[in-house]
TrEMBL record:
Listed EC numbers: 2.5.1.18
Protein name: glutathione transferase
Record GO terms (molecular function): glutathione transferase activity
Enzymatic class: transferase
A family per Pfam: GST_N
Length: 198
C-alpha cells in the first residue's frame, strides 16, 4: 500500500515481503534463504550451502521459463513449450538425476531434506503441468517426486485447498498481458539471459 511505501516497510517499494521474527524481509531469494536456514533446510556446512545455492539457482532458471510460458502469444505457444521441454529434458533434469545418483542419499545435498529438494519438487510439478510423463527417462527423479511428495507437510501443501497457487487461469493471464504489454518474441527475449548462461 501507499502507507507501506511511505513508512519504509517495503525497502524497494515492491513485493514480495514477509514479516518474520520482527523483520520485514524483501527480495524472494533473501526470504527463501532465511526461511530455509531458520527451519534447518539450508545445509550443515558452507560446502552444503554452496551446493544448495547452485541447485536452487539452476531450478530458478527453469521455473522462470515456465512462469513466463502462459503469457506466450497464441502463435508462439507451441514453440515456447517445445523450448521449455527441450531445456528441461536435455539440460536440467539430467543434472538433477546425476546429483541424486552421485549423492546416494535420496536428497540432492547431504542426508536430509533441503531447500534445494523442495525447489526441485516444485519445478518437477510445474513441468508436469506443461506435459505429463516428462520424467519418463529419469527414474531417480520419478522416485524422488513420489518420496518427497509423501513427506507429511509437503503432502498437505499439495492437497487441493492449500496455499499452493494453481496455474494461472485465462482471466489472470489476460490481466498480466495487459499490464506488461506482451509482444511477439517476448518469451524468448526474457529468456535470453538464461540462454546466454548455457
Amino acid at each position: 500500500s501507499h502507507c507501506a511505501f511511505q513508512g519504509g516497510t517495503l525497502m524497494y517499494e515492491q513485493v514480495p515481503m514477509v514479516e518474520i521474527d520482527g523483520m520485514n524481509l524483501v527480495q524472494t531469494r533473501a526470504i527463501l534463504r532465511y526461511i530455509a536456514a531458520k527451519y534447518g533446510l539450508y545445509g550443515r556446512s558452507l560446502e552444503e550451502q554452496a551446493w544448495i545455492d547452485m541447485y536452487v539457482e539452476g531450478l530458478r532458471d527453469l521455473s522462470d521459463m515456465i512462469m513466463f510460458f502462459p503469457l506466450s502469444l497464441p502463435e508462439e505457444k507451441e514453440m515456447n513449450l517445445e523450448y521449455i521441454l527441450h531445456r528441461a529434458t536435455t539440460r536440467f533434469f539430467p543434472a538433477y538425476e546425476k546429483a541424486l545418483r552421485d549423492n546416494k542419499q535420496h536428497f540432492l545435498v547431504g542426508n536430509r531434506l533441503s531447500w534445494a529438494d523442495v525447489q526441485l519438487l516444485e519445478v518437477i510439478l510445474m513441468v508436469e503441468e506443461c506435459k505429463a510423463g516428462v520424467l519418463s527417462g529419469f527414474p531417480l527423479l520419478q522416485d524422488f517426486k513420489v518420496r518427497t511428495s509423501q513427506i507429511p507437510t509437503i503432502k498437505r501443501f499439495l492437497q487441493p485447498g492449500s496455499q499452493r497457487k494453481p496455474p494461472l487461469d485465462d482471466e489472470s493471464i489476460g490481466t498480466v498481458k495487459d499490464i506488461f504489454k506482451f509482444e511477439q518474441g517476448m518469451f524468448l527475449k526474457n529468456m535470453s539471459t538464461i540462454v546466454a548462461e548455457y
